[in-house]
Design brief:
- This protein has one domain: 3-Layer(aba) Sandwich (Rossmann fold), CATH 3.40.50.880.
- By secondary structure, it is of the alpha/beta class.
- Strands 4-1-5-6-13-12-11 form a seven-stranded mixed beta sheet, with helices on both faces. A two-stranded antiparallel sheet has the order 2-3. A two-stranded antiparallel sheet has the order 7-10.
- One of its GO terms (cellular component) is cytosol.
- Pfam families: Peptidase_C26.
- InterPro entries: Class_I_gatase-like (IPR029062), Peptidase_C26 (IPR011697), PuuD-like (IPR044668).
- GO terms for molecular function: gamma-glutamyl-gamma-aminobutyrate hydrolase activity.
């Protein structure tokens, strides 16, 4: 970890999330989780928040950016994966957020820029590639912590152990896996918890929130460090 921190920090873009209100702005805000940006910083990266803008020229906007994190957030509009809303538990749907998320992950995977997707980011990347979601789980995984075993790519993920203590906060999961997406971990109930994406670059996704316990659980910080190492290659 010391070697990563002492090097020049690669620039890690995190797509911002719209919030109806925040205490410090008094009005609607653009946010990222403090724990997430602190986790990327602790791993040696320079976290930067991007404004979601329709029709973005990503080649231009991402100039000087070394990797992308697609963070957690609210629900994806079910119409994005060919369904009508079927649950009263759906919340925070924002068509602009969906549009920009979809275009950014497609660009990242097509160009090979390193990509880590988390929770909502994990879900919408599956949607971007042609998969679907369970709109509302029978048993929600909110404030849910449980071990998850990674079956493959431990070296690529920089993990010292295949078992990670996954801290989750979600009520949706992947249903149909998108073509080309490789499942590499499941929960005890069988839910998909981690995947590798089809890309010429480093591209992985996790359903849990590694930022929740990166400072107390080494495997979570190792995941961010793996992203930073890949970013340093750009």
């Amino acid at each position: 970890m010391e070697a990563i921190i002492s090097a020049n920090r690669p620039r890690i873009a995190i797509l911002g999330r719209f919030a109806d209100s925040t205490s410090v702005t008094r009005y609607a805000g653009l946010v990222n989780a403090r724990r997430l940006v602190e986790g990327i910083w602790a791993a040696g990266g320079e976290p930067l928040t991007l404004l979601p803008v329709s029709g973005s020229d990503w080649a231009s906007r991402l100039e000087g950016i070394d990797a992308i994190v697609m963070p957690g957030g609210s629900d994806v509009n079910p119409e994005r994966y060919g369904q009508k809303p079927q649950s009263d538990e759906l919340y925070g749907i924002d068509d602009l957020q969906d549009e920009v998320d979809l275009s950014l992950v497609k660009y990242a995977l097509e160009t090979g820029i390193p990509l880590l997707s988390i929770c909502r980011g994990f879900q919408i990347t599956n949607v971007a590639l042609g998969g679907t979601l369970v709109q509302d789980m029978e048993v929600h995984h909110r404030h849910h912590v449980a071990p998850v075993t990674i079956e493959k790519y431990l070296t690529e993920l920089g993990l010292s152990s295949p078992t990670v203590e996954a801290s989750c906060y979600h009520h949706q999961v992947i249903d149909q896996v998108a073509p080309g997406v490789e499942v590499i971990a499941r929960s005890a109930e069988g839910h998909i918890e981690a995947v590798r994406y089809p890309s010429k670059g480093w591209a992985f996704g996790v359903q849990w929130h590694p930022e929740d316990n990166f400072d107390t659980n080494p495997q979570q910080l190792e995941l961010f460090q793996a992203l930073v190492r890949e970013a340093q290659k750009n």
